[in-house]
Here is the input.
Amino acid sequence: MNIDILNIEAEKTNRTFTFDSDLANFVPNDHSIYLAVKQFLAAQRSGTHKVKTRAEVKGASRKLHKQKGTGGSRKGNIRNPLYKGGGTVFGPKPHKYHLKVNKKEKDLARLSALSYKFKENKVIVLENLNFESPKTKIFTNFLNKTEIQNQIAILILDDFNDNVFLSSRNIPNLKTMHLADLNTYEITKASYVIFTEESAKIINGSDNLIHENHNLNI
Here is the structure.
């Protein structure tokens, strides 16, 4: 699959990048995508929800009245859950929402999500970026000159570049991330995936992973 390489001015450079045919024609696994996205979203939850039990709320420990003979219900102290301001019974407690997904299945999900972008022609390859100083206007002009304007996009870098990150972080619909941090959720959330030449070469070099996942029967 050949994709035109663009420069930062959104102009064609008369060069193309050839993605591996197995990557472009990869058969996606929707269930793997579901599991990977579910795990990612679950991991974002802090799990710090908490209510006070009758042992933690304020109030005296004196028994309000004798156990029997009053004609009323049996009550303990003022911290009893039956009273306003009393403790909560069976309320939420802090816990983690971590879900386990096997590494191979997460790899399969990521490749499946990328394959959808290839099939929809939502993959763009940029010349390698080398900014001398942060300049948000450069990215704004690039987005305005392409169909990406007003759509969510992720820019994948092969290495950390402070000037590129600083230039793009104030653009609401553009998220710049390192290739190592690329995950299924970000791919599915974005309308467009933008690779630099170097990051595209690394993705293209994952042939062993592609062929290995072709044989997975999950």
